[in-house]
Please model this.
Amino acid sequence: MWHQFKELADVDITQESMEVGPTCHYVMGGIEVDADTQAAIGARGLFAAGEVGGGLHGSNRLGGNSLSDLLVFGRRAGLYAAEFVDTVQAPTVSDADLQEAIDWALAPFTNEDGESPYAIQADLQDMMNSLVGIIRTKSEIVEALAKIEEFKVRMANMKVMGGRGYNPGWHLALDLPKQLLVSQCVALSALTREESRGGHTREDFPGMDVEWRKFNLILRAEGQNVEIFKQLLPMMTPELAALFDDGELSKYMTEEELNSLVQRTS
Model:
């Protein structure tokens, strides 16, 4: 830490105060996968593990568990991905679909009056930090979703300079639509979940609601549109519930759920 501050900011933190601020470096969610195989739901042939997956910990970021999470579920993903490869036929892509993908990828080189992807990315980062940051509220998230629609228009006409060989601006232009999609999913989820839980804090809904614990929010992208819906979570098994203190479970479960667990174990 001392070396980083000295090299990057010329600040000796043993002699001077350092500036510390919160930042987002983790997404409390991820790709929906099959619990056993790590196969992505709705994307055949994709296997996901680690922080890109939904993970074990729900709304909490347990950094010390990240490596074990990756090792356990990475192994599962690898085993079932190998099985999948051995049993599936190689997919075919039509010439028309291939040409459409090429035209989309090369469009930033031909747009006449487009914006720099770096300028758009900087504005997107500032907007999300300002309106969908650590403390969220409905009016700001609604404003963010409206601005995301404006970003879609701007991104449709990006322009990059130079050639195709090692061109970071071009790479960013290809990545930005995905960054915008993730931003839209984060904002829409934050607007829909009317409670505060883990890393998600709503100023207008400061308390945790046990009813919300029953659901995950699932998002599906269709073209430019994103749909969101609640998905009921499976009930915790008695064997797993027995590992927790009753008082701890009562923070997260409804009285009906707790009574159901008691009946199953009795």
Q: What stands out?
A: The chain is about 45% helix and 10% strand. The beta strands are 135-136, 201-202, 215-222, 225-232.
